[in-house]
Amino acid sequence: MSRRVARETALQVLYQIEISGESENFLKIIEHWSGEFALPPKSVEFTQVLVEGTLRHKKEIDAKIASTAHEWALDRMNAVDRNLLRLAIFEMVYYGHTPHRVILNEAIEIAKKFGEDDSSRFINGILDKFMDAAERSN
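RE: above sequence
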């Protein structure tokens, strides 16, 4: 199973949901993108966990992003960066099966592929700050 491809697929799905507003059809959207990327069943499962969990905890995740990214309002962030942050924070806080540094590195690489020129630095800064705050609170 390629977790990177599953994360990339989850990002595509979350982006489409945000643009279209069709969160109730997320399983059909996952099915579409899984077919596009020819994902194996285990990767589809992981994509579904990521998307469903991110959508379920979106309000809490957005609050965590807002408290970490003081200078950046969520609506000022581009949609790819915003959804990649949501995805990474879901995986760090609610999924809990992957080391935070791995999630951070994956998010940076995905940002390089799907984001704008400065997206990887932006994602790195916000997630690094988030992880530092989380470590201090433990």
